[in-house]
Amino acid sequence: MEHVISKYTDEGGRDFYYILKTRKNVKKLVIHFTAFFGDWGDRKEYKENYQGYFHRLKMLGFQKDFNTLFLCDQFGFSKNGTYYTGEHGDFFVERAMLKIIKRTIGELQISSGDIITIGSSMGATAALKFGLLFDVKGIISISPHIDLDICAEKQGRFDHVAFICPDGNPMSVDNYIYTRQVNRLLDNWDRGRKLPVLFMHSCEDDYGVHSEQVLPIVTRWKFLGGTEYSDFRLVGGHGSDYCTKAVILDVIDRIFNDRKIQPKKYLSFKYLPDKEKLEKYRVVRKSIILLLEKLHLLNLARNARSYFLAKLKKD
């Protein structure tokens, strides 16, 4: 099915691409922010024709229970993202995202209480930031980059974060306005306002992210009175496969319908990645075959025993 790519051009002549998938008479909106789109996107043959890569388009673009806005950020150091901020101290990407989101909300005539933001890594940075800015119903944050100075140092994103800062120094405390936007929003959060429901997926072996960024933000969210659900895994790294389509759709449904999220059930077979399901199928199949072989041998042994006993009686 062909997806219509829309374009917004800002005052500086910069083009921003997005996809809006609408459903008739549906007043719910999921806003998905794309992550860094990988090393393949840095190759010349892709860059020359690049109009924006939309992560999870197949997963979320055909759902009937909500509208979906897919956003991407193709600016920055490698034209691969600025954490939805901008370049050299100019927040032009953020301004464009605000315009596109506000326009979409106006077109669909929905309230912020009917919006969920979602993203992974850099996309999760944006899901958190814009989720707070628009006071949305819920935020789905998967392996998020939150404090960008830490990401610069420990996640191999030094050049990307440096490109955001006016002086090119991502480690400077003076640049927290650029590198610690999510925590700055929480610094100024009115305790009388209810925080969005937060679903956090993260893996303990995600160096530079889980212990350094995820755990502190979860603690802070709860301290501010927010509702937070943690789906933490021992292994999976930064590109975790465990936040599957089944998990994400269940979380979206529960947030929209004011139902408690149950992270423990996401450990069950239904929510596993396809490759693990296949492996479990193989193990079960192998066990069944071995069992059948044993039963067959047992049957043969019993038949042989009966034969020799009968023969002994005759003799």
Beta-strand share of residues: 5-15%
Query: Order of strands across the widest beta sheet?
Result: 1-2-4-3-5-6-7-8
Q: Give the oligomeric state.
A: single chain
> Roughly how many Å apart are the termini?
79 Å
* Percent in helix: 40-55%
Query: What is the structural class?
Result: alpha/beta
Give me the Rg, rounded.
25 Å
Run of helices and strands: EEEHHEHEHEHHHHEHEHH
Indicate the CATH architecture of the largest domain: 3-Layer(aba) Sandwich
Count of helices?
Answer: 11
| Total domain count | 2
InterPro entries: AB_hydrolase_fold
Protein name: Alpha/beta hydrolase family protein
How does this model look, in words?
- The structure is a single chain.
- The chain contains 11 helices and 8 strands.
- It has 315 residues and is an alpha/beta fold.
- The protein has 2 domains: 6-272, Alpha/Beta hydrolase fold, catalytic domain (Rossmann fold, 3-Layer(aba) Sandwich), CATH 3.40.50.1820; 273-315.
- Strands 1-2-4-3-5-6-7-8 form an 8-stranded mixed β-sheet, sandwiched between helices.
- Helix 4 (122-133) runs parallel beside helix 8 (181-187).
